[in-house]
Write a structure and sequence with these properties.
binds zinc ion; globular; about 30% helix; alpha/beta; five-stranded mixed beta sheet
């Protein structure tokens, strides 16, 4: 596929699916891998509204995505410099370039809207105090969706 075609999209479906690994990045990566017919997503970029967590950074490395672009940092669970800095660790065999802070204000606003919405529905109460509340912030739209996508790069 050529140009800037979107290969995969995802939004956080952890609550909806009951799958703890159903983060936007993972779902977008799975769809992209299906579309390209293989696990190597070299030459792609992952755009995501918020800083990927450790699991998603693992998936990004395993799929060989070379560039991650995200909007808002996640100071509690982010693995691109906030809690961990996986891309700068240096022990992994290939390099992932991270571009942070793209449309950060807009992403943060979406996150705050999500939190208001979730509290109104009582979903956060189930996990409050367990350390998982911050992970809920990964869903970032008012309707509880968090968008992520993989597009072909240069
Ligand atoms: Zn994640």
């Amino acid at each position: 596929m050529l140009g800037h075609e979107v290969l995969g999209r995802g939004h956080n479906r952890r609550e909806a699916s009951g799958d703890p690994t159903a983060h936007a990045e993972v779902l977008a990566i799975r769809e992209a891998a299906r579309r390209v017919g293989g696990w190597r997503l070299e030459g792609t970029r992952l755009y995501v509204t918020c800083e990927p967590c450790l699991m998603c950074m693992g998936a990004i490395y395993l799929s060989r995505i070379p560039v991650v672009v995200y909007g808002s940092a996640d100071p509690k669970a982010g693995a691109c410099g906030s809690t961990y800095d996986v891309p700068r660790d240096g022990r992994l065999p290939h390099h992932v370039e991270v571009v942070a802070g793209v449309r950060e204000a807009e992403c943060r606003e979406l996150l705050e809207g999500f939190f208001r919405n979730v509290r109104g529905q009582g979903v956060v109460q189930q996990v409050r105090g367990s350390g998982l509340e911050s992970s809920l912030a990964w869903k970032n739209n008012n309707d509880g969706r968090r968008d992520g996508r993989v597009v072909e790069g240069d």
